[in-house]
């Protein structure tokens, strides 16, 4: 059980990072980005292409993060910015269309073959008591914690981070205080794309790289975002960790078939019992 919990925490950390990108975009622009998984997939393929061109892994990752930021900004500027404030159905259809376009582009460039992605961690497990620990699992958990702390410091201690938080909380008030709201929208998409690229690079060596490899991860990430609260950044990470551990234990001790349906059961349960999620607070508005 201890081994399954640690493995579940590692998988949950990936869910949390992907959910974090979803929440960042939704909190700042009120858009549910259904193409977030395909953006991550494209960024991960870019990393593999850069490695294939002879670049070392660390340099390929840095360049991928830069490219991920550019992809997020371009999508926000060309497609999303004109739709902010539009009906939910309009933005949902645009994101679904982007999902299909990015998937087809990936197949056109890289094909449908399964690709082996190099890992940044050692493949040799080590033993701690009666538990065999994977360096990849521990590495993913540590990176998730460090990245979450880095984002926490950024949002609480920097002028730009505080401007983003203000815009996420109340766009009208932020605009009246002189905050460039449109720039914050672009930064949110850039940051979400970069965090997603990190998640893709971490999970690709474990489940192999394929043009559909993020689709199942995205289901769990949306469930994690709903579980933690679709507008709660810490809730996204905690929701991912909870979901990772629960799904691992359910798959081992109850039924592996139920594991795939679990995120949808959790989303339905949370929407019925606590629609705002576990960590979402109440918002007061003066009429």
Mean pLDDT: 85
Order of helices and strands: HHHHEEHHHHHHH
**What class, by secondary structure content?**
mainly alpha
Q: Kindly provide the radius of gyration, computed on alpha-carbon positions and rounded to a whole number of angstroms.
A: 19 Å
- Distance between the first and last residues' Cα: 52 Å
| Poorly predicted residue ranges | none
Proportion of beta-strand residues: under 5%
Question: Level of helix content?
Answer: over 70%
Number of strands: 2
Determine the number of helices (DSSP H or I, runs of at least 4 residues). Answer: 11
The strands making up the biggest β-sheet line up spatially as 1-2
Gross morphology is globular
**Main sheet specs:** 2 strands, antiparallel
Would you give an account of this structure?
Helix 2 (36-52) runs antiparallel to helix 3 and helix 2 packs parallel to helix 4. It is globular, with a radius of gyration of 19 Å. The mean pLDDT is 85. The protein is 74% helix and 2% strand. The protein has a two-stranded antiparallel ribbon with strand order 1-2. It is mainly α and 287 residues long. The N and C termini lie far apart (52 Å). The chain has 11 helices and 2 strands.
């Amino acid at each position: 059980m201890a081994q399954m919990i640690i493995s579940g925490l590692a998988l949950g950390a990936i869910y949390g990072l992907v959910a974090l990108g979803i929440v960042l975009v939704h909190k700042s622009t009120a858009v549910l980005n259904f193409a977030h998984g395909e953006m991550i997939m494209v960024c991960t393929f870019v990393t593999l292409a850069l490695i294939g061109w002879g670049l070392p892994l660390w340099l390929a990752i840095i360049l991928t993060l830069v490219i991920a930021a550019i992809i997020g900004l371009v999508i926000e500027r060309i497609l999303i910015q004109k739709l902010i404030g539009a009906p939910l159905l309009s933005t949902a259809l645009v994101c679904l269309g982007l999902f299909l376009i990015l998937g087809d582009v990936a197949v056109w460039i890289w094909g449908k073959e399964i690709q082996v992605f190099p890992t940044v961690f050692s493949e040799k497990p080590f033993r701690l008591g009666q538990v065999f620990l994977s360096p990849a699992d521990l590495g993913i958990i540590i990176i998730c914690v460090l990245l979450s702390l880095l984002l926490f410091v950024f949002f609480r201690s920097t002028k730009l981070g505080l401007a983003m938080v203000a815009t996420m909380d109340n766009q009208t008030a932020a605009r009246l205080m002189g905050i460039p709201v449109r720039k914050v929208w672009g930064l949110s998409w850039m940051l979400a794309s970069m965090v997603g690229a990190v998640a893709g690079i971490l999970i690709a060596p474990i489940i192999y790289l394929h043009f559909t490899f993020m689709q199942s991860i995205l289901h769990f990430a949306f469930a994690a975002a709903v579980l933690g609260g679709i507008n709660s950044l810490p809730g996204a990470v905690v929701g991912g960790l909870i979901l990772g551990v629960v799904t691992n234990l359910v798959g081992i001790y109850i039924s592996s078939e139920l594991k795939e349906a679990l995120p949808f059961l959790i989303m339905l349960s949370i929407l019925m019992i606590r629609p705002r999620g576990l960590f979402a607070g109440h918002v007061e508005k003066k009429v």
